[in-house]
């Protein structure tokens, strides 16, 4: 794992009290995933729909899916995530080639988890009405590039990384999953 500096354009574009963290996880077999966390400050525009940045960087979103990832620590719960499958052409030695990107994200606040931008905005608005306090949300994402046809294998590897790392940095969890017992 290596720390990746945040691009200057990001630092200049988003509110100054936004907190960022980026890591690049590399496996021995060459697989790589970039994990990013963005924590909003007093300005809610620190976090926006991830689709804007992905398409702004030249990716075409081909598929959007909701999923849950089982997390086992500190107790078993299901983490709601959104998975975007994207594509773009990159210049190779013999001309343009198609690559795929798997982008997985979710939003987290104190006692709140969601994969839906609209739900995050609703929760933030309701909390503001109830308490007068702007709830601080974080946006967590993972991104890996792969060859066409490797999308499911790449997503499986990203899920493994999420299962291993989320208990190390995320305090908010979902409801404990209860095992069904036979009567």
Element layout with pairings:
Layout (H helix, E strand, L loop, with lengths): L1 E2 L4 H6 L5 E8 L5 E8 L10 H7 L3 E12 L5 E16 L2 E15 L2 E3 L2 H15 L6 E9 L4 H19 L14
Antiparallel strand pairs: 1-2, 2-3, 3-8, 4-5, 5-6, 6-7, 6-8
Task: Please provide a written account of the structure.
- The protein has 183 residues and is of the alpha+beta class.
- It has one domain: 3-Layer(aba) Sandwich (Protein Transport Mog1p, Chain A).
- It is 26% helix and 40% strand.
- The chain is built from 4 helices and 8 strands, in the order βαββαββββαβα.
- Strands 1, 2, 3, 4, 5, 6, 7 and 8 form an 8-stranded antiparallel beta sheet that branches.
- The termini are far apart.
- The relative contact order is 0.18.
């Amino acid at each position: 794992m290596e720390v990746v500096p945040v691009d200057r354009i990001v630092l200049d574009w988003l509110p100054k009290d936004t907190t960022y963290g980026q890591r690049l996880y590399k496996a021995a077999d060459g697989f790589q995933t970039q994990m990013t966390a963005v924590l909003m400050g007093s300005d809610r525009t620190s976090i926006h729909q991830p689709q804007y940045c992905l398409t702004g960087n030249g990716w075409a979103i081909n598929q959007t899916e909701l999923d849950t990832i089982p997390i086992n620590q500190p107790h078993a719960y299901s983490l709601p995530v959104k998975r975007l499958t994207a594509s773009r052409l990159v210049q190779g030695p013999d001309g343009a080639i198609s690559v795929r990107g798997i982008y997985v994200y979710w939003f987290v606040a104190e006692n709140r988890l969601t994969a839906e931008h609209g739900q995050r905005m609703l929760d933030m608005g309701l909390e503001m009405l109830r308490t007068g306090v702007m709830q601080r949300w974080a946006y967590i994402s993972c991104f890996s590039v792969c060859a066409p046809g490797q999308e499911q294998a790449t997503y499986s590897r990203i899920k493994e990384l999420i299962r291993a790392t989320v208990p190390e940095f995320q305090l908010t969890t979902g409801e404990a999953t209860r095992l069904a017992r036979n009567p």
